[in-house]
Write a structure and sequence with these properties.
55% of the residues lie in helices and 7% in strands. It is α+β, with helices and mostly antiparallel strands.
Amino acid sequence: MATLHWQSRYNSLKKHGLCLLISMATLLPNLVFAEQDGHKIYDEIMQATDRREAGHFIFQRALSGNDPELQKAALLGLGRIGAAKSIDQIGTYLYSPQPDIRKTAAFSLAITMNPNAYNWLVKRLASETNDGVLAELVAGIGIAPKHESDPDRVTVLLPYLDHTAISVRASTCDGLNYAWSMYRDTISVPNSTQVFKLMSMAQAHPELADHCLYSLTRLRTETALFEQAQLLKTIATASTPYHHKLLLLIVGQQQNVRYLPYITTQLNADDMGVVAEAATALAKLPHSQANNLSYQALLKHPESQVKIGFIQGLVSQPPSDTSLAMLKQLSEDSSNWVKYRALALLFQAQPESYLSAVLKLFDQSTAQSTTWELMLLEVAGQMDNDAAKAVIKRALKSDQSVIREIAEQLAAETSDDAEARPNSVTAPYAAVRGIFSERLVIQTNRGDITIQLLPAAPYSSFNFYQLAAKGYYDGTPFHRVIPNFVAQGGDARGTGTGNPGYVIREELSHSSQLRGTVGVATSGKDTGGSQFYFNLKDNWHLDRRYTVFARVTEGLDVMDKLERGDYVVSVKPSK
């Protein structure tokens, strides 16, 4: 009996197992086809987005389906395109039962930069209960343009500084950062109560301090709103180099000697970014003989970014005998970046006295001196006197074609910033997807920087990869370097106006502009090309406005040392 029992059980399992195999064999092709279909739809969404085809049927197909990933891809694509007819279509998904869909819809509405999106965001804010979606809504309200009759954005945002969720309070600070950066003429005037509250939050919640202090750095002219005792208390609670960079920005704007002890302390910080910001803050204070030791230490500092920071502070004040004497000393510096920046400012302040020194550079023109000639031409273009005209006239005879072109534009008072027509898609998305995991080594004259391309910006990554493979970046300078902000390169002309002969589209995403990320430099929507920049610190005011396509994985120390005039030797795949 026992034998019959086990035999019966075996036969039953065999029978049902066979049925299961038959069922799986029947379902498997459907599952494979569904997966293949999903990939195809996603690829078409990405391609339609890059072509800026808001009316493409693929968006509606994805949105009407049941795949949340495809729905999010379609919403993001429509947001990147920014067509007016898509606003209501995106807005309805603010009421999706799925928080991730609502969050994507909020982000997508904000990046359309269409004022009709603002009301959708504000209306949904009142009834939203999910913290992640709320965080996206308040950030979006800070950045989205609005109609004059719409509710004041700062008034809408302020109550959310008291929200129970840290993420919502942090995003509210970010929203205020956008509002104070982009819409100063159309928002309610900031007041001391708001400033006091943000400083109090920074003191009480270290995890919020970055966001609170960053938003306060955007109040560049409202120095009277900062209560000294409260600011000193905030300084006492600062716990990271980044906090000190932000606080030094705020203190530098105050130009108040009461903060001198804090500034001089930070001149001895280990982080050179902090020291550079402290140098700027010190130079902005009224010049005093009591600070001579600090001045001399900065004038002889081994790091160029620190001396450039000091120069930035000096030029914020009207020229004085003291500042001109320090600039003269810096004009003899071993760093060309420091040397010619100081010379340009001396020429601006005393044109006749420094005309011969400027002309000497043009007389000895070489391919290596182009960066500095362009710097001096830029200053000459801002002046209207005989000395400036003499520089432009001399530049017209330069052996360097780019110098002649810029001089011709200045002489004719024209610009070469003509709007380029966006190029069409040059590769199917399947080919673009193939480089997502690629790491590239950017070899510079300072050392190597390894970056990883990001799938959040596929076409931007692909464009950089393709240009690098052609050797486009070899020898291109870093034409714009601002300590504690960005190091920008990728322009073969070195003027900041060059491109590879076409433009690419923006691919805004949730990737934040953090230190070590790499962004696409643009002069407006969908005007990218070959130019890129390294974020030298967290630059949150650039979020939702510029594409992040890569991040530095090795060589942050090299990135931090980049100077204007440094250059890319080559860009190669990482081994």
